[in-house]
Every structure is written in C-alpha cells, then in structure tokens.
Amino acid sequence: MKTEAAQKTSRSMFKFFRGDRSLVSLDQCLLPSKAGEKAATLSDLRRSGYPVPEGWVLFPGDDPAVLIEFLQPSDAEPLVVRSSAIGEDSEAASAAGQYQTILGVTRREELLPAIAQCLESYDRASAVQYRRDRGLSDSSMVVLIQKQIRGVFSGVAFSRNPISRQGNA
C-alpha cells in the first residue's frame, strides 16, 4: 500500500515539475520546429481570428491520458486525429496522404487507438521513403486533435498567404 501511495505522489510531483504540456491548444503560439508546420500555421490562423476549429496538440513523449480525459467527443461533436509531423506541410514538401488521419472519433475509448494509429503511420515504409526522397530528416510526429467540421464539400484550395495578406506568396 505504501508503494502505491508513493508512486501516485511521485507521478503527481513529476507532472507538477514537468508542467502539464498535455493540454496545449491551438490558441497558444506554436513553433513549427516543435509542433510541426500544420499545427503552427493553424494556431497562427486561429489566433488571427480565422474560423479554425478548436484543437489540441500532443507532443512526443506526452501522456495522452490527460488530453483524453479533457476531451469530450460525441456523435454531435466528433473529433479528427491527424498528423503535424516536423517537416510536414513545408514549402518543400506537403506529405499529403503520407500520414494517417482518423475521422469521426465520437467516444473517448476511440482516442488512444486513433492516436496510436496516427503515430504509427510516421514509420510506414511509404512515409519513410517520401521523407528520404525529399531529403527530409526523420524527426518526430506531433498529433493534432481537432473538432471535426461536418462539411458539405471538401477539397484543397490555394490562396495568398493568409497571415501576411499581401504579395504573391
């Protein structure tokens, strides 16, 4: 019994000193070198007032339990679990389709397997070859979890840089 109490206290103290990084949202300023280009860009857009769905970032090594406990997916408000790998969605490479995206997560019990599936896709042979072919180093996979929008249409649109709003970028 004393051992269990000591372990529980140790975990609490570890979380205290580490800081709870497991609840990092897109409302915070995120660096591409830490959170990946996708999460950092979505964070910039959201903080600039664009209607980016609410989202959270899970960094490598973070315990997903805190985030899973916080999130409340449902049939009415499903979540999407997606990648924001370091080096993904850069000016040199998009990595579109290389990493697994899990749509329609409606229960907490589905989150951990979805996170694991997303993380595992980083090491798929096709993803490794994609990075190798473009001279991208193997870095890390950051997982981005967002509220899923129920869309009528989907696709990709290219526009001018939404941050600077000027020039030809």
Structure report:
α3 (64-70) packs across α4 (108-120). The chain is globular and about 45 Å long. The protein is α+β, with helices and mostly antiparallel strands and 169 residues long. Mean pLDDT is 83; it is low at 11-19. It has a five-stranded antiparallel β-sheet, sandwiched between helices. 37% of the residues lie in helices and 12% in strands. It is built from five helices and five strands.
SSE map:
Blueprint: H1 2-18, E1 24-25, H2 32-47, E2 55-58, H3 64-70, E3 79-83, E4 102-105, H4 108-120, H5 125-133, E5 143-147
Antiparallel strand pairs: 1-2, 2-5, 3-4, 3-5
Helix pairs in contact: 3-4
Brief overview:
With 169 residues, the protein is an alpha+beta fold. Helices cover 37% and strands 12% of the residues.
**Compute the gyration radius: what is it?**
18 Å
**How many strand elements?**
5
Poorly predicted sequence stretches spanning 5 or more consecutive residues: 11-19
Please outline the major beta sheet. Answer: 5 strands, antiparallel
Features:
5 strands; globular; alpha+beta; 169 residues
